[in-house]
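Input set for joint prediction.
Command: fold jointly, output tokens.
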Amino acid sequence: MGKQDYGPIGIATALVRSSFLVNAVYAESSREHGLTPQQGQLLCVLMAQPYGMGELGAILGLAKSSLTGLVDRTERNGLVQREPNPQDSRAVRVGLTSQGGRLVREFYAETCRRIEKLSAGLSATDRDTLASLLGRVVLDNQVPMVFIEPDEGAPAARRY
Amino acid sequence: MGKQDYGPIGIATALVRSSFLVNAVYAESSREHGLTPQQGQLLCVLMAQPYGMGELGAILGLAKSSLTGLVDRTERNGLVQREPNPQDSRAVRVGLTSQGGRLVREFYAETCRRIEKLSAGLSATDRDTLASLLGRVVLDNQVPMVFIEPDEGAPAARRY
DNA sequence: TCGATATAATTCGTGAAGCGAACTATCTGG
DNA sequence: CCAGATAGTTCGCTTCACGAATTATATCGA
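tokens >
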């Protein structure tokens, strides 16, 4: 209850501030790779597999018209491409170009490195505890597959 | 190490995804209060006290030209106001209007409520642990005073 | 088979956001 | 008193995000 070291902060404040922190790191890492944060996020999602525009909208929480623009700009930069969907000629599949693939692997690794550094002041045990607790929060809340881990969602579990 | 429940995720992934989650909740709460997330954040910062443009730029991590626009728009909506700084006639103090104060108290409380709900699946003990660990991360990384808690940074500790 | 409806995506117009460069006004140190 | 430094604003630009309207294709039912 003491105030000598600012005292404990509530869960909401802690979550909002850590989110602020992560956003800032993510934005800086994006910028240094010549990406906007949104384009970086798009690439990270596509790292797992190609998606249709509708699926991407659901994953990223964007209106479809917003997504058209984002994909346009990222495509203009040569990082993603639209391919016709053989099953449905209305639809497209958005996937990484080889340049986009190369860039996102670098961007993803570097961003992970920087985000991990944020918890460098914690012991390994505490860091694992934090990862586990946060992992349960994101699992409970059905966070979409943004920022997938390389071996996460093994092929057998993929639906598309 | 098993894969049956997706297995543990790394600290970086956990942080990025929880940040994604928090952003979404924050954005939705803002929207429902007639605010953009940026305007909501500005109001939350000003909840503690008025600040100059330069200070706000440092706190929010924005270029000064970006801040001019943000404060302009929020002022146009009647939520903040610029007041001359008696000590320095170049400078300005940005503070909440009474309408802005009323709105931000409501917005802040409601947003906290929603963010807290994200951890509803955790036991009280786990939630406290999570808050404490995240609290250390934000403290270690010098997160600016965004989303201050009502009794945090008591008047005696304020520098301005 | 044909027509109604649903779905996938794009286009268009609008406003918010963010930046850097250039500018104005004031303050401060020598 | 003048040469910087500092506080903010303005300007031009790009990105981002949305909703409404549109086009094209798919699908379902009669």
